[in-house]
Amino acid sequence: MPEVIFNGPEGRLEGRYQPAKKKGAPIAIVLHPHPQFGGTMNNQIVYQLFYTFHERGFSVLRFNFRGVGRSEGAFDHGSGELSDAAAALDWMQAVNPDARSCWIAGVSFGAWIGMQLLMRRPEIEGFISIAAMANRYDFSFLAPCPSSGLFVHGDKDRVAPVNEVISVIDKVKVQKGVKLDHAVIEGANHFFENRVDQLVGTVGSYLDRRLGIVAE
């Protein structure tokens, strides 16, 4: 898995990039949880999402936000991290100029950043938001949500209670043809301890459905 360094707004950003075998493959970026609570691109869920996309033919990137690992800069409470995510998408598009589509995935804090990037970049056609912290971050900017996607949360999540996430989803207006799905993993907490396999299976099934992949 190639290690990559690319330019971000506050210096170099460290990532891991796995190109697809086919030219013109779709691209995906995976965003990690909160940097001040141990979130890195090596988070288990980020790692599993990375391979879930790659197994379906995507060129995929995960990277460390500013101030994490070998990424330069310092934590910026979301604003700078959104700029980092935009820089990551720019880099992916430069490396994959023939990519036919683009997806964004995020975990916890990364889900909040990913949804903001979705609103700014019309080329993003699908998203996966894991354990979105709707109780701590304002998601009202999704007005209307421009692309279909999947929210996944655990029913034992005390950090971002499932009811608050569902109430946010229910309030979001969507553009015509856009559908917001949400799945609840029974017994899962905010970190999906002992439930990562179920989480990955849920995301994989959703991607298969969206991509039209038929199980053999």
What does this structure look like?
The chain has about 220 residues and is an alpha/beta fold. It has a single domain (about 5-210), classed as Rossmann fold (3-Layer(aba) Sandwich), CATH 3.40.50. The protein is built from five helices and eight strands, in the order E-E-E-H-E-H-E-H-E-E-H-E-H. Helix 1 packs parallel to helix 5 (about 195-210) and helix 2 packs across helix 3. The chain starts with a strand and ends in a 5-residue tail after the last helix. The mean pLDDT is about 95.
Instruction: Give me the CATH superfamily.
Output: Alpha/Beta hydrolase fold, catalytic domain
* Helix share, percent: 25-40%
How do the strands line up in the largest sheet?
1-2-4-3-5-6-7-8
Which descriptor suits the 3D outline? globular
Q: What is the number of helical segments per DSSP (H or I, 4+ residues)?
A: 5
* Uncertain stretches: none
Write the layout of secondary structure elements.
Blueprint: E1 3-8, E2 11-18, E3 27-31, H1 44-54, E4 59-63, H2 79-95, E5 102-107, H3 109-120, E6 124-130, E7 148-154, H4 162-171, E8 180-185, H5 196-211
Parallel strand pairs: 3-4, 3-5, 5-6, 6-7, 7-8
Antiparallel strand pairs: 1-2, 2-4
Helix pairs in contact: 1-5, 2-3
State the main characteristics.
216 residues; alpha/beta; Rossmann fold; 8 strands
Summarize the structure.
Helix content is 31%, strand content 23%.
